[in-house]
Amino acid sequence: MPLFKTIKLSSSTIFIWKITESASALAQDIVLNENSLERLQNMKSEAHQCGFLSIRQLLKTTGYSDDHLYYDEFGKPHLNDENYISITHSFEFSAIIISNQKVGIDVEKQREKIKLIANKFCDFELESLQQNNSNYVKKLTVIWGAKEAVFKIKNERGISFKNHIKVLPFEMEDTKTVAAFNFNSKRQQLEIYFIEIENYMLVYAFESSQLR
Known about the structure:
Elements: E1 3-8, E2 12-18, H1 23-26, H2 34-41, H3 46-62, E3 69-71, E4 77-79, E5 84-90, E6 93-99, E7 103-109, H4 118-121, H5 136-154, H6 161-164, E8 165-167, E9 176-183, E10 186-197, E11 200-206
Antiparallel strand pairs: 1-2, 2-6, 3-4, 5-6, 7-11, 8-9, 9-10, 10-11
């Protein structure tokens, strides 16, 4: 389908695509550079192909093309101008955020199985969560998405979601929280925002404390 939703912030814009097409349909009117074409051809899963191509459709929607996007040695995406970009896709949804500040974004499907791995990415966060609460899976999904978003900003080898990124307690109606990052003597607080879209959680993070 066409662009699903656009969220305009003061310094950033989020573009969301709901993936309902086949990979071949998503590939229409998209020009890929040599590296991207090779990456696409090496993807064995059509779901991965659709995620990859829907990101390029989003880029096209914003006026960018595949040639404007490149990846550094750590796999972090960059635009060839002064703007920052972060990208994400999960099953039915993909999203990009373009900003004049460092930013990270993640979209995650809400699934019960996240309960089974909570202790692998959560530490003190579990103290404020109640397993019998109706929002337990939602909150775990936000916490995972927040840590993914922070990691996409920091993008350093050796960062542990459990040990180096802490998400402060929050309520779902808050739609925001704070993450504390502590790694290699670097300490920082990052702003976290989250939005529920159908059965997915969209989470994004900013380094700056400036008003959005």
